[in-house]
Structures are given as structure tokens and as C-alpha cells.
Design a protein that fits this description.
With 338 residues, the protein is mainly β. Helix content is 1%, strand content 43%. It has one helix and 25 strands. The chain has one helix spanning 289-293; strands spanning 9-13, 22-26, 31-37, 47-49, 52-56, 62-66, 77-82, 103-108, 120-125, 130-135, 142-144, 151-157, 160-165, 170-174, 181-186, 198-203, 209-220, 226-241, 243-249, 255-259, 265-268, 279-282, 306-309, 315-316, 332-334. The chain has a five-stranded mixed sheet with strand order 21-20-22-23-24, with no helix packed on it. It has a four-stranded antiparallel sheet with strand order 3-2-1-25, with no helix packed on it. Strands 4-5-6-7 form a four-stranded antiparallel sheet, with no helix packed on it. Strand 12 (151-157) and strand 13 form a beta hairpin.
């Protein structure tokens, strides 16, 4: 079986709720691939980048990269140092935190198989949403001591990492300096959105940079648990008119975005029959302080997912876990490597 390596697929539980396997869901075909990829059902994937998933062992605290398309071959598993080593000198690990949520998001600079000696893994971690990275060959993680920035997304573009914080300010992460440094390169859009909003940073095929703001409202369930629900998006494009700034975009044209816990992705929809242009495919990525201390992921399961139509602002469903799967980790976008 072969897939298009440029179109994300959704990693979902199997129809039988296997404890050791997962299936794939295609947004273009609207159906399930019963492929049985070797990914445990009870492991939250805190990242998906270049076809590799990032997981954490709650007992050993070791971060592992998994490429499930190698089907249990040892080449598809890379163990990295324990994330306990990435804590800064002024930080203390909260023992009440569920370790699977300590790493908020992880992305890779390159495919470790194609570039075994030249790749980095950048993570957003902890309730302060700080950054840390691992460089291939290192024996430990390196933390970036940047206080009170609360990063929400990070990408690798033009040989460097770019990260966006809660206020919409974009930073370059200079991991070649010692100690690593952060430099603000694009100003904030402004704090006109609620604290429950999510921000993503995406690169376009022509090298442009988009910042996407996901509008989320939070309510409380009958049992007192927070419930998140997405109701819209704003898209801003980086522009240079004497100074660098942001410009509100009314349309993606032929483009589609795939957002969530994955490496934020832009896709030219016309290349893939069945993929909707001018739309945002989003998965449930609600992980606040409550989530880090409690289970399940959300009170009613990872149901905050859909296809947002930028033109008419409507949201259509595309995949929804059943009641038996609501305590399982949320689905995540995954780029196939076969």
C-alpha cells in the first residue's frame, strides 16, 4: 500500500480498539485504511513531523521518535534522552503532572533516516510553554531560558526554528549560540483574542509565513471539567512594507491547512482530489493546565475537530471517535513516508 507523502492522514484508533495498533483516515476518500500501524492506543503523540511521532514513557521519562510506517522494524524507533534532563536550573518538575502532557508539541528539522547526523527536535514543554531542543548525537536536551513567553507553535523554515507565542509575536531560535538565544523578528498581532485561542505558524510553498489564530470557547461540563469548542479562525500573512508586520488574509485560495498537535502544514488542495481548498482541517489539541493534571483528554473525548470553511465560516465534521474511544488520546495528522 502506498500513500501520497505530501498529504497528511489522520492517525486514529482501530475499529476493534486494538491496544497495540492504529489505523489511518483519509480526508480525500472519507474512509478508514485498515492498516494496523504499530502505535499503542494509550500513548499520546505529542508531535508529528516528517512522518515521525513523538511519545513519552511515563515510567522512564524517555522521549521516543516512532515512524510507524517501518512496521516494527528497529529503524523506525529512535530513543532520545529523558525529558527530565531538559528542566532549567530554576524549574522544578510538578510530580502531579501527567507526563504524557508535559511535552506540548514536538517537531523535527528533518527526517532522521535521511539525515541521521544532522537533525534537531524542538519541543514546547511545561505549563510555562518553554522551548528545549535535542541535536542528533547529543547526550542530553538543551533548554532555552526565555521567561514569560508562552510559546504555542514552532516550525523549521530556512534552516532555523521559528516560534510564535501566546501574543502572536514570532521569534527566531538561535540554537547555534551558547547559551541558545531567542530573537523577536515579527511583532505581535495584538492581544485581541481570548486566552483560550490557539496560535499556529505555517509556511507556504512560496516561502511565506502565515499565523493562524484558532478561536476557542471554553465551557464547563456538568462534572466541572473544562470543555473546549472551536468556532472560527483568523489568518494573517507576514508582509514587509518598510517594516515587518501582519496582514489579515480573507482567503487561502487553493490552499488548505492541517492543524493540531502536528507540524503545522499547508497543502495545495488541487493536487489531491477530494481535498477542500480554502479550508482548515483541525484536530483536538486542547491541553491546558487542567488537562496536564487530569484524564481524560477532554471530558467528552477529543471531539473538537472539523473542517473550517474560510469563505462561509462553517464547520463540517470529518471524523469523530465513538464513545468507546473518548478516553483514548486524540487523533493526530501524520505524513506518510511510504
Amino acid at each position: 500500500m502506498y500513500f501520497n507523502i505530501h498529504l497528511p492522514l489522520l492517525l486514529i484508533p482501530t475499529g476493534t480498539n486494538s491496544e497495540t495498533r492504529r489505523d489511518l483516515f483519509s480526508v480525500t476518500h472519507g474512509g478508514r485504511y485498515k492498516i494496523g500501524l504499530p502505535v499503542p492506543y494509550n500513548k499520546r503523540c505529542s508531535g508529528s513531523s516528517h512522518g515521525w511521532l513523538t511519545t513519552i514513557d511515563c515510567k522512564t521519562s524517555v522521549i521516543t521518535l516512532i515512524n510507524p510506517f517501518y512496521f516494527d522494524h528497529n529503524q523506525g524507533t529512535i530513543k532520545l534522552p529523558s525529558f527530565l534532563q531538559l528542566m532549567g536550573p530554576d524549574e522544578k518538575l510538578d510530580e502531579s503532572i501527567n507526563y504524557e502532557y508535559l511535552i506540548i508539541k514536538a517537531i523535527l528539522s528533518a527526517d532522521p533516516i535521511s539525515n541521521p547526523d544532522d537533525y534537531e527536535v524542538m519541543v514546547i514543554y511545561g505549563d510555562m510553554r518553554r522551548l528545549a531542543f535535542y541535536r542528533s548525537g547529543d547526550e542530553h536536551w538543551t533548554y532555552i531560558q526565555e521567561a514569560h513567553v508562552m510559546f504555542q507553535d514552532v516550525i523549521f523554515q530556512g534552516g532555523q526554528f521559528l516560534a510564535v507565542n501566546l501574543d502572536g509575536k514570532v521569534y527566531i531560535c538561535d540554537i547555534t549560540s551558547n547559551p541558545p538565544k531567542m530573537k523577536s523578528v515579527i511583532p505581535s498581532i495584538g492581544s485581541v483574542f481570548s486566552n483560550y485561542s490557539r496560535r499556529y505558524i505555517v509556511t507556504t510553498p512560496d516561502g511565506g509565513i502565515l499565523q493562524v489564530v484558532r478561536l476557542v470557547e471554553s465551557t464547563t461540563s456538568a462534572t466541572g471539567e473544562p470543555v473546549a469548542s472551536t468556532y472560527g479562525f483568523f489568518i494573517f500573512k507576514m508582509v514587509v512594507n518598510g517594516v515587518v508586520g501582519w496582514e489579515l488574509e480573507a482567503s487561502l485560495g487553493n490552499g488548505s491547512l492541517f492543524l493540531g498537535d502536528n507540524h503545522s502544514a499547508y497543502v495545495e488542495a488541487s493536487r489531491f482530489p477530494g481535498c477542500r481548498g480554502n479550508c482548515i482541517y483541525f484536530t483536538d489539541d486542547f491541553h491546558d493546565i487542567y488537562t496536564m493534571h487530569h484524564l481524560p483528554y477532554q471530558a467528552h473525548g477529543p471531539s473538537d475537530a472539523g473542517i473550517y470553511n474560510i469563505k462561509d465560516h462553517s464547520i463540517d465534521p470529518f471524523y469523530m471517535p465513538n464513545n468507546e474511544q473518548r478516553h483514548m488520546p486524540p487523533p493526530i495528522w501524520l505524513l506518510p513516508t511510504i
